[in-house]
Design brief:
The protein is about 30% helix and about 20% strand. It is an alpha/beta fold. One of its GO terms (molecular function) is sulfur dioxygenase activity.
Length: about 475
């Protein structure tokens, strides 16, 4: 028996590969199919099942393409009604994979079709349970994503309480909990950076599994402090219920090389967005195509694409580091942005060689930031971190303008002012600066190293501000 956890850091997502005696199963696959097919091929195994714990909201899963290529059966739990063929499993149903068995445990609450899968080995032991978004390490799934006219988040939280108490917490304490997400995912409030744990330890450390917790206390705990879900979540759920464009077609179209002249012509169209996915260093040193947004592939790329590009059908062309074009298109598609139409062949070197001008974001060091702040010559400084980060500690006199809500708050921004932006390390502030510039703000400056470096300058910090004073 082989069980592998496949962790994708950008999405904080865990898929699973199970193989036994020539048969394999995948749990919660990403959009791309080849990695799973290659794993099975290396083991001389046939993929028999593709199991889904629920309709995912934060990424587009690849079960339809994977089933089409391998002949595997797609399995969902009760209440799932997608627009493609599945085996709708029943609570307690068993599925054989070689010498091991997966038992479906219907665990509604995060969503009503949510199910966990209990692995039973050939000796009858239960070493693992795959909990999807029902139980995370240190947290549980948020109960507000599947709210409907006849189903409130309180209703869902109540279902989640029952699922945990009746289906999960009754399992052996030494069983390993394998969830679908880890720290950084917006599917929970406060997940651990650990990607698995024993159920027994979770009973001791996870607030939601406290033995003496009442249902009413649980509902209050899990529904308090929920931030609005990223805007693309609803679109991804719809896509996961339907049949989408083949990943192969998306990759073929998206990796079309475009010469500088063609790229320039397309970049000037109102219906096309240019995204620069290179490193922070390349972006700032070489400049970029006028109007391009920076969303670097080496940061939280896919979630920021989903959070910041309002139209999931947006036509996109992009700039990438040489050799990473396939990766970039794949990562766009993971969150449903399927309309990539090509990349700048030769990168910014080709752009500049063609005689076209480049936009650059000005930057200053943390020390320069501190000195100018002290002198009163800085301009308007904005901290683009999340509100929770800002409230925990920030520079005195600097307002909060979270990147997450940049579009809804942009009316506050005056094109003729000078803005100095920082985040924690410089990734989010560059994204914000590029969007400022693309929207007509000429004087925007990024603070290199962000708040992490600013703290070392001795500038005055505070750990509390009244939320009503925020931008």
């Amino acid at each position: 028996m082989k069980v592998e956890q496949l962790f994708t850091g950008c999405l904080a997502e865990m898929a699973y590969y199970i193989e036994s005696n020539g048969e394999a199963a995948i749990i919660d696959p990403l959009r791309e199919t080849e990695p799973y097919i290659e794993m099975a091929k290396a083991d001389g195994a046939k993929i028999k099942y593709v199991f889904l714990t629920h309709f995912h909201a934060d990424f587009v899963s690849g079960q339809v393409d994977l089933a089409k290529k391998t002949g595997a059966t797609i399995v969902f739990g009760p209440n799932a009604n997608p627009h493609y063929d599945i085996h709708q499993g029943k609570d307690g149903e068993f599925f054989k994979i070689g010498d091991v068995t997966l038992k479906l445990l219907h665990t509604p609450g995060h969503t009503m079709e949510s199910s966990s899968y209990l692995l039973i080995d050939k000796n009858g032991k239960m070493p693992y349970v795959f909990t999807g978004d029902c139980l995370f390490i240190g947290d549980v799934g948020r109960p507000d994503l599947a709210v409907k006219s006849d189903l409130t988040q309180t209703d869902l939280a109540g279902h989640l309480f029952d699922s945990l108490r009746n289906k999960i917490m009754t399992l052996p304490d030494d069983i390993i909990v394998y969830p679908n997400h880890g720290a950084g995912s917006a599917c929970g409030k406060n997940m651990s950076s650990e990607t698995f744990d024993t159920l027994g330890n979770q009973k001791k450390t996870n607030y939601a599994l406290r033995a003496d917790m009442t249902k009413e206390e649980f509902i209050t705990e899990v529904t308090t402090g929920l931030k609005p879900a990223p805007q693309y979540f609803g679109n991804n759920v719809k896509m996961n219920k339907g049949i989408n464009t083949s990943i192969d077609e998306i990759l073929h179209r998206g990796t079309t090389p475009l010469d500088a002249a063609t790229f320039k012509e397309m970049s000037e169209r109102d219906d096309i967005l240019v995204v620069d996915t290179r490193s922070k260093e390349e972006y700032t040193e070489e400049g970029t195509v006028p109007g391009a947004w920076f969303i670097g592939a080496d940061g939280g790329f896919a979630p920021w694409v989903g959070a910041l590009i309002p139209n999931i059908k947006q036509k996109i062309i992009f700039i990438a580091e040489g050799g990473r074009e396939h990766e970039v298109v794949t990562r766009f598609s993971r969150v449903g942005y399927d309309n990539t139409y090509g990349f700048l062949r030769g990168g910014m070197h080709a752009w500049l060689a063609a005689g076209y001008e480049a936009d650059k974001i000005s930057s200053i060091s943390a020390t320069q930031f501190a000195n100018k702040l002290k002198e009163g010559s800085l301009g308007e400084a904005l901290d683009v971190r999340k509100e929770s980060e800002y409230l925990s500690e920030h520079v005195v006199g600097v307002g909060n303008f979270p990147l997450d809500y940049i579009h809804s708050n942009f009316a506050e921004i005056k094109p003729d002012k000078t803005y100095v932006l920082h985040c924690a390390s410089g990734y989010r502030s560059l994204i914000a600066a590029s969007i400022f510039k693309a929207n007509g703000v000429k004087n925007v400056i990024d603070v290199r190293g962000g708040f992490n470096d600013i703290k070392d300058t001795g500038v005055e910090l505070t750990d509390y501000v009244c939320p009503t004073t925020l931008l």
